[in-house]
Specification:
single chain; alpha/beta; TIM Barrel; 9-stranded parallel beta sheet; globular; binds S-adenosylmethionine
Length: about 475
């Protein structure tokens, strides 16, 4: 197969629509024993073929589903342990030149557009910091004039610079439109964490229908964004599909092909996969979409992604309800947003109903409530941002994940950031219960040297030190 950059390489060939079509037709009807044998194969953790994935996506038998969920839970536990990383989105600009049919920010929606000024960015950041957040995902619509790369880079500088009394944003991931290598180099220089871009749909005819007459309408340019990002030096990229636009089985196989393409051409696949489901937004009605997926199918997709790409983080946003989020944490999700606002300036104005949001959210709990809920369910809420600050990105992160060594930093850092959070932002209830919880988790750390580092770190935190990590 020609490699990216070769003369004969046709940019977007790697999402082979014909091959996906053939696999989907071949696996339209599958037997129970075919499904059972793929589940058996998956248990050996030696990778699954596209056809295998298409086969287990057809599982409906409750016993098979239970086996898939259990395997996903085992894989998640063995690689990431029970920590769950928390973050919040920060919307800085709703100017948009695109007309994405499904999006509340589309240019046909007439409302007063705006982008945050420096004092407004600082205010939003202070509010996020007062919630205890250390990690954000910067979000903006696409508008090369009103929201150019220099605005984004400047916003990143302000975000990192705005330090509150006992908190600061330590990792800013960025979710902005597909752009040039030069602009990705600028994001790299600005110190971003993951560059996130959702393909929305990999199905080219649907993509073109959903993104009419716009910059974003160029399927190839959007699809090859991660190639340019990696050429620009960004080695952590986060993919996503907006489930509901096209056939979910097509999307899952295409996601796998995209991941394989990055692995073979750049040496590392997706750092994360986000799994947004289509929600009601201004100027669109859900009933116009034929491929919406129900909760059971959604759970199955998440569990199968966890099995298919064990080392890739899976992110769930507040588009989903508390109940679904709790359940999916067991089946593969490793990162959650919490306390989110999806409007520009939304943290300050979240009580003003007229504000235009990009889409509606379903989990309205505060970060503190989310954190208490996680602890109750035996998960360690984590505000860890250490990997990229320690240079554990791209293939370096992946090799640690693949050997299981990542656990030696994930769990300790999760515990230390939880303690820091409880000291600075916990209420009486959390403060009273957190130490017992942390002690019970320290017991599970196997290496004595790491145990002692955590115990020392916890004591330093109590003494007033902050931002301790391995
Ligand atoms: N403008 C950037 C781009 O083009 O990629 C960032 C996009 S936006 C801030 C983040 C994501 O929200 C989109 O990629 C899309 O998947 C999602 N989104 C848009 N409309 C949505 C809806 N109605 N329901 C759920 N998610 C939606």
């Amino acid at each position: 197969m020609p490699k990216y950059g070769d003369q004969n390489y046709k940019q977007a060939d790697f999402i082979n629509h014909e091959l996906i079509g053939e696999i989907l037709t071949k696996t339209e009807v599958v037997t129970e024993s075919q499904i059972a044998s793929v589940i058996e194969k998956a248990k050996h953790r030696n990778g699954l073929s596209y056809e295998d994935i298409a086969i287990i996506l057809q599982a409906t038998n409750p016993n098979h589903l239970k086996m898939i969920y259990n395997l996903a839970a085992e894989i998640k536990q063995s690689i990431y342990g029970n920590r769950v990383v928390l973050f919040a989105p920060l919307y800085v600009s709703n100017y948009c030149v695109n007309n994405c049919v499904y999006c509340g920010y589309k240019r046909d929606n007439k409302f007063a557009r705006r982008k945050l000024t420096e004092p407004e960015i600082r205010e939003e950041v202070r509010i996020l910091e007062s919630m205890g957040h250390k990690r954000i995902a910067l979000e903006a619509g696409e508008d090369p004039v009103n929201c150019d790369i220099d605005y984004i880079v400047d916003t990143l500088r302000i975000i990192y610079d705005e330090v509150s009394e006992n908190s600061n944003i330590r990792r800013a991931n960025v979710n902005i439109a597909s752009t040039t290598i030069e602009n990705y180099e600028k994001l790299k220089a600005a110190g971003i964490g993951t560059y996130i871009l959702f393909q929305e749909t990999y199905h080219k005819p649907t993509y073109e229908k959903m993104h009419p007459k716009s910059l974003k309408g160029d399927y190839e340019y959007h699809l090859t964004a991660f190639d340019r990002a990696m050429q620009g030096g960004l080695d952590d990229v986060g993919a996503g599909v907006l489930f509901g636009l096209s056939d979910y089985r097509f999307e899952v196989l295409a996601l796998m092909m995209h991941n394989a393409h990055l692995e073979s051409n750049h040496g590392v696949g997706f750092h994360t996969i986000s799994v947004p489901r289509l929600k009601k937004a201004e100027g669109m009605e859900l009933k116009e979409y034929d491929h919406l997926i129900d909760d059971d199918t959604f759970k199955k997709i998440v569990a199968i992604l966890r099995i298919a790409v064990p080392f890739t983080g899976i992110i769930l946003s507040t588009r989903e309800t508390k109940e679904i989020r709790n359940e999916l944490l067991h089946h593969g999700v490793s990162q959650l947003s919490a306390g989110s606002c999806t409007g520009v300036g939304g943290y300050k104005e979240n009580e003003m109903e007229e504000e235009i949001k990009q889409f509606t959210i379903s989990d309205e709990r505060s970060p503190l409530e989310v954190i208490k809920g996680l602890i109750n369910d035996g998960f360690i809420p984590s505000h860890c941002t250490s990997c990229y600050r320690m240079g554990r990105t791209g293939d370096r992160f992946m090799s640690l994940a693949k050997t299981g060594a990542i656990q030696h930093v994930c769990q300790p850092n999760a515990l230390m950031t939880l303690k820091e959070y409880a000291l600075d932002f916990g209420d009486e209830e959390l403060k009273a219960s957190v130490d017992g919880f942390i002690e019970s988790q320290i017991e599970k750390i196997q290496r004595d040297d790491i145990k002692s580092k955590v115990i020392q770190g916890l004591s330093d935190l109590t003494d007033g030190k902050r931002d301790i990590y391995l």
